[in-house]
């Protein structure tokens, strides 16, 4: 499992524009304590039908081409809401091995038809491939990531969810955080908080 730096450390490395966005977002965001949400390993709920999903998109190569393509493909699956997109440094970059910045954006997708988590994972892998994602690199070669799609949170199909579709984040307790993705990176947490702003 990958190691995450604390959000406070990551914020020091973020562009000023992104840091300011976090401060401004606190004024409008709902009370969202991610630490209190249920966490679950993806393999435990792989067969469960998912009705909503929170995604993190990232691209460090031709993002202006591949992000719109990914958003278009996701919109074919249901209703899409987008967070602000930000350019962030690659946190694995060093002076000896500089790496291109990433453009990151979170997406809230309400699926037209419930899909199992396993099917969703495969769908997103296919979508990455449609964006010319190349997974194999030569030793010491900097990876060009056209599109990376990570599942941060899911909401499973229940009677209550189908009845409360009008308000996207009416019951935050229904959301399940993917344990292999938590704690979120700073830009992921900000994207989730931005999308959690009440639309009522």
Q: What are the SSEs and their pairings?
A:
Layout: H1 7-13, H2 16-25, E1 38-40, E2 49-59, H3 63-75, E3 78-82, E4 86-88, E5 102-116, H4 117-130, E6 148-156, H5 159-163, E7 175-178, H6 186-195
Parallel strand pairs: 1-7
Antiparallel strand pairs: 2-5, 2-6, 3-5, 4-5, 6-7
Helix pairs in contact: 2-6
Q: What would your notes on this structure say?
A:
The chain is an alpha+beta fold. The chain contains six helices and seven strands, in the order ααββαβββαβαβα. The protein has helices at 7-13, 16-25, 63-75, 117-130, 159-163, 186-195; strands spanning 38-40, 49-59, 78-82, 86-88, 102-116, 148-156, 175-178. Strands 1, 2, 3, 4, 5, 6 and 7 form a seven-stranded mixed sheet that branches. It is globular, with a radius of gyration of 17 Å.
Question: Could you write a compact summary of the structure shown?
Answer:
This protein is globular. With 200 residues, it is α+β, with helices and mostly antiparallel strands.
Task: Give me the strand/helix succession.
Answer: HHEEHEEEHEHEH
Enumerate the spans where pLDDT stays under 50 for 5 or more consecutive residues. 1-30, 161-169
Helix content: 25-40%
Which structural category fits the helices and strands? alpha+beta
The radius of gyration over CA amounts to: 17 Å
* Shape estimate: globular
Number of strands: 7
Largest sheet: 7 strands, mixed
Number of helices: 6
Strand percent estimate: 25-35%
Descriptive terms for the model:
200 residues, alpha+beta, seven-stranded mixed beta sheet
